[in-house]
Amino acid sequence: MNPITSALRTLRRHRRRSAAMVAGLVAGLALGMTLASVSAASRRATLNSVKNMLGTFDTVLVRPGGGKTRGMVSLTNVPPTLTFEDADAIAALPAIRQSAELQNAFDIDVQAGDRTHAPAVFGVSANWLDLRGDALSEGSFFSPEQMRAEARVAILGADVVTALFPNAGASAMGQTIRLGTVPFQVQGRLARRGAGPGGFSLDDLILIPVTTASHRLFNRSFLTMVVAQLRRPGDSANAMAQIRTLLRQRHHASAAALDDFTLTDPSAVAAQVTAVSSRLTVIGRGAAVGAIALAAIAIVALMGLGVSERRVEIGLRRAIGASRAAILFQFLLEIAVLSALAALAGLALGAGGILIAARWQHLPPEWAWPQSFAAAVAAILLGLACGLVPAWRAAHTDPVAALRR
Amino acid sequence: MIELEQVTKTFVAGGAKPVRALQAIVLRIERGEMVAIRGASGSGKSSLLNILGCLDRPTSGRYLFEGHDVAGASDRQLSRLRARRIGFIFQSFHLLDRITALEQVELPALYQGARAHPVAPRERARALLTRVGLADRLRHYPSQLSGGEQQRVAVARALMNDPSLILADEPTGNLDAAAGREVMALLAELREEGRTVILVTHDDAVARRAQRQVLLRDGNMETA
Fold it and tell me: Could you tell me if A14 lies within 8 Å of chain B, comparing CB atoms?
């Protein structure tokens, strides 16, 4: 019998106690792995949805108003301070590659034949598609010429196509729709983008030239947003400083006046959004730590009990030639083997947990094997550390007393 | 083979007065002798046996075992002596639960160190169990064996390391007369092979099989 099989048999002989000793390790490891995947998956999903909405993070969002307006602005609550000329000036800044102009409204009825729908309507500049990196699945985007001509053309999001043209056989291209009372010709269809933050659809929208929106639909000359694309990715601090100086100058703001616009760095927002852990994650993390702490206590207590119960065995082994070091080694080997088994079980259970959680989250599982294996090794080391005191006691059991009948 | 010079053993039990278990023991045992240690309980028999078996160290005095001074040896050195030169037999057998007779006998091989033996432990264990008449009990667990059979397993285990010294603490104390005689016959055989056998016993009939009896009274030796 070699020492490892001997250890395995001892563990099997006391399988309930062995299981109780390391149940916490298994649970803690599995829970930790699962939670890491859950929060990584939701973090990635949030990031993706934010990215989905913004198209790219390498931008600065410029909105009118001094930080008093919150959330998505519509025409009814927008201060008229951000102009087309501002957008052109921003585009000319050294840190900015190009800027896109945007005017939007959420309260416009859209009609096609006898069907109506109320999607978000965005007036955007002709470089919108290029700046965001979006694609069309059908038709073509409006050209700069069409924008200058204030053409009444519309690009439909996938949801709008479904709502207004449910007959899959007939193409929406070339059809006429009415925004309010103004007729527009459908010229393109956006590729499906999926969900944005909070789960709302990013495909329920209509894009029209911002000039057309301004003069023929909304009758407003100001913008609800300028999206300024950075010349160099990551240069947002510099770009924001340049934009702030420019706009304050253009808006004749005195040194004491507050900004009448708001600058947002989307990557900072995304970082903020993803840094927030859900309450579930916090509770779960506490439970994982608690389980592992419980395991530490259980190992010390139950292994100590085992040492007391196995006094005769220890005495006998000493009599047939085991040194104290050999006894110490035997008990440490037992707890090492047990912890290793627990670590394997924890990894397996964690992998199962990750798969189940991913299905429940409707998100792809996030595997982090290097970290998981590191945690498994840490669990084994913890087991060994906790076993040190009982193993030491075993090694210093007086064989004479242990063998006394 | 064995020389004790003025060996004493004192136990200090928590707070109480130190107890002198052995007082100035002088004893010489030659190779191949069978010696019975007798005495009332508490007379120091077990203390003496533990010192002889290198499980315990004398408080003072000198113990030479095959020329090694045991009194000053380290735990490792003592353990190596036990692993290679000494075999123990106990009154209550001290077989481990839930491992087979074969595995009980194999166990000492774990501690014999790197010294390569030409025959595998399993084969040696099988041969030893056959020798003590348990060839048909190799896979039996202690709970499936009679007392006499268990003690014969223990004898086989004590022989696993081919020891020069066998120490038996009341080897027949838990056995009926017939089983006791069988075990004593085995011990006599071992002595005839040239091994030194030292046994502790209350039993006159057992003690008479030894060539020499040592009587202990309150930690003092009286040679009978």
Answer: no
How far off is chain A from B112, nearest CA to CA, in Å?
7
Domain ranges of chain A: 3-48+277-403, 66-259
Q: Beginning with the edge strand found earlier in the chain, give each strand of the sheet holding B19-29 in spatial order.
A: B19-29, B2-11, B60-65, B68-69
Chain B interface test: which of A320, A323, A396, A405 (most B C-beta within 10 Å): A320
How many domains is chain B built from?
Answer: 1
Burial of B131 (0-12, 13-18, 19+ CB in 10 A): middle
**Per-residue pLDDT tens digits for A171-207:** 888 899 999 889 999 999 999 887 776 677 888 999 9
Residue A350 Cα distances to A36, A283, A371, B157, angstroms: 10, 17, 12, 46
Q: pLDDT tens for residues A236-265?
A: 899 999 999 999 999 998 888 888 898 988
Q: Residues of chain B whose C-beta is under 8 A from some C-beta in A? A: 46, 50, 53, 55-56, 75-76, 78-80, 82-84, 88, 90-92, 94, 96-99, 103, 106-108, 110-112, 157, 160-161, 170
CB contact under 8 A, A404 and B53: no
Say if residues A233 and A58 touch (Cβ distance below 8 Å): yes
Distance CA A153, CA A180 (A): 14
Residue among A13, A322, A403 whose CB faces B111 most closely: A322
CATH of the domain at B131: 3.40.50.300
Q: Helix A15-54 vs helix A3-13: angle between axes, to the nearest 10 degrees?
A: 90
- Smallest Cβ–Cβ distance between B55 and the set A6, A313, A318 belongs to A318
Q: Which residues of A touch B98 (CB under 8 A)?
A: 13
**ipTM higher than threshold 0.90:** yes
B chain contacts of residue A400, beta-carbon cutoff 8 Å: 46, 50, 55-56
A321: nearest CB among B50, B83, B99: B83
Instruction: Decide if B33 contacts B211 (C-beta within 8 A).
Output: yes
Give the integer Cα–Cα distance in Å for A125 and A204. Answer: 19
The two beta strands, B165-169 and B86-89, are parallel
pLDDT in tens, chain B (224 residues): 899 999 999 988 776 788 888 998 999 999 999 999 998 888 888 899 999 999 999 999 999 999 888 888 999 999 999 999 999 999 999 999 889 999 999 999 989 876 667 888 999 999 999 999 999 999 999 999 999 999 999 999 999 999 999 999 999 999 999 999 999 999 999 999 999 999 998 888 888 889 999 999 988 888 65
**Which structural domain, as residue segments, surrounds residue B9?**
2-223
A319–B55 C-beta distance less than 8 A: yes
pTM, two decimal places? 0.75
